[in-house]
Amino acid sequence: MNNLTRLMANCAIQTQRHSLLMPATSTIAAIQLRTKTKIVEKPKPGNGKQFRRIVHFKDEYTVEPLEITHLAGRDPVTGRVVAKGIGGGLKQKYHWIKWVRDGPVEGPPQEEKVIEILDDGCRTAKIALVGVGDELKYILATENMKAGDIIKTSRFIPRIPVRPNEGDAYPLGALPVGTRIHNLEKNPGYPCHLIHAAGTYGTILRKFDDKVVVQLPSKREYAFDKTCMATVGRVSNIEHNKEHIGSAQRMRLLGNRPRSGLWQRKDGRFGRKIKKLPPMTLIPPPPGKAPEVIKLTIPL
């Protein structure tokens, strides 16, 4: 013990002498170097980025399963962890869903046949392989859809609302009030990117002018254009939110890393308050192209 104390004292004396002999400029430089940090702009999850996987899409639409690069919550450029709780999981293939349900504007609707119902590891809902003419495509399967069903697609809006079946795609203006829908367009002609999760659906509440009010799964009301396409029915796999995981290994197979602690929403008197839903929101038109900049080349 005495030898250890004597050794530490000698080290302290030598450090003091070394600091006295060093010039002041080198001491300042050492301090600056010690506090030097590297500023890295770390991206935030959201805006359609999960940081879970990268799908290698091809130039043209295909029903062949696509290759995937798993990110495990890391930024593909810097490799830094952006979204925690992601990692592992079974290797999956991605099935390319054709989000645009296009049909004739006039005349009888286009008929399509459901060939097969499949499970997709990259989404919660089941998917359906549909054939129309010489084309094959994947769509989201509805609650009661089965192989052999005939579904219809049309963009025609009749004077009297149609009587649709599950899986049919019509404009909002052609469907009666109270219809359950999913796979909804936000603006006419754009891909249907609303109401995709398993077991979810929207409800047509009322119509006014050229707008149709739809209640989304969040219970908020939005007014869409009557020409926006929507698929009739509820999304398949309605028992997804009641699925029992059963083990930690099962959770890892799903691609979720363990949590450090159980998060719980604060309840009681000072907990979450039930607030009134906001009023109906009008969906704005898509943004137009930016005006071209005119460059003047004549010197003045």
Automatic annotation (TrEMBL):
Keywords recorded for this protein, A-Z: Ribonucleoprotein, Ribosomal protein
Large ribosomal subunit protein uL2 RNA-binding domain: residues covered: 73-153
GO term, biological process aspect, one: mitochondrial translation
The UniProt record lists the keyword Ribosomal protein: yes
Any one GO CC term of the record: mitochondrial large ribosomal subunit
Stretches assigned to the Large ribosomal subunit protein uL2 C-terminal domain: 164-286
Superkingdom in the source lineage: Eukaryota
Molecular function via GO: RNA binding; structural constituent of ribosome
Pfam families associated with the record: Ribosomal_L2_C, Ribosomal_L2_N
InterPro entries listed in its UniProt record: NA-bd_OB-fold, Rib_uL2_dom2, Ribosomal_uL2, Ribosomal_uL2_C, Ribosomal_uL2_RNA-bd_dom, Translation_prot_SH3-like_sf
Cross-referenced PANTHER family: LARGE RIBOSOMAL SUBUNIT PROTEIN UL2M (PTHR13691:SF73), RIBOSOMAL PROTEIN L2 (PTHR13691)
Family: Belongs to the universal ribosomal protein uL2 family.
Protein name, entry field: 39S ribosomal protein L2, mitochondrial
